[in-house]
Amino acid sequence: MSGARQQAAGLLGAWEVGVAVLATLIAGLMRGYSGFGTAILLAPVYSTLWGPKVGVPVMLLMELFVSAYLLPKAIALANRRVIFSLGGAAVLATPFGAYILFVADGATLRRAIGLLVLVFGLLLMSPWRYHGRRPLGLNLAIGTVSGLMKGATGMSGPPVILYLLSGPEAVAQHRANLILYFGLIGIVAVIPPLWGGLVGLPVLIMTGLMLPVLLLAVPVGARMFHVLPVAWYRRLALLALMGAGGFALLG
């Protein structure tokens, strides 16, 4: 059996696949409902189960399919001036962040991902929000930090989500902004793993197993946006984030 096939077989333990399916289901519901949640929830779980060099590329490939489903309805509603400046900076910074994914120790990177998710969850729970203006320079700075995080960990969300959710827009436009941003950066973020040879048989097998679960859950989450009270969603999302971050730190 080749090395790639042996590695792929080693990823298919029953409990690992069960945990991955449950996390993917929850992440799909979150993404469909709010416009974010895929990377923030799945990056720590997948990285713990399979290591960052498999888990992060799997999550990035799945993001492409989710964005293709959600983007068409979001483009017209999103604040394109803000999102294109954020996304442009993030796109340029993502390859530099990807260098960290290639060279960093897997266990260290996994724990860093878990810590980032926990800190992000705590910030969402707190009353703090940024309520200032959104000048071009700040958009570019937030986008650059987000792009570096996307390349290294698969997660660009924490700085951008906190930044965008603080604006005066209605909930529907917040959701559209996040969908458009993650769609823009998701296309670019998958290029470094492809170019660097990380997308091998193990990544393709796990993507093939998890993608149907995600694609089934996202439309359900999108329907929930119209019926589930925001307060309920917020509590459930925070619980999921704290659980994923703790799983990566302690796993």
Structure explained in plain terms:
- With 251 residues, the protein is an all-alpha fold.
- 82% of the residues lie in helices and 0% in strands.
- The chain contains twelve helices and no strands.
- The chain has helices at 3-10, 14-34, 38-50, 52-75, 80-103, 106-125, 136-153, 157-164, 171-189, 191-195, 201-224, 230-250.
- The longest helix is centred in the first third of the chain and has 24 residues, at 52-75.
- It starts with a helix and ends with a helix.
- The mean pLDDT is 83.
CA(first)-CA(last) distance? 29 Å
Give me the number of helical elements: 12
General shape = globular
The average pLDDT value, as a whole number, equals 83
Which structural class should the secondary elements be placed in?
mainly alpha
| Rg over alpha carbons | 17 Å
Q: Helical percent range?
A: over 70%
Q: Strand content of the residues, in percent? A: under 5%
SSE pattern: HHHHHHHHHHHH
Low-confidence stretches: none
**Count of individual beta strands:** 0
**Sheet having the most strands:** none
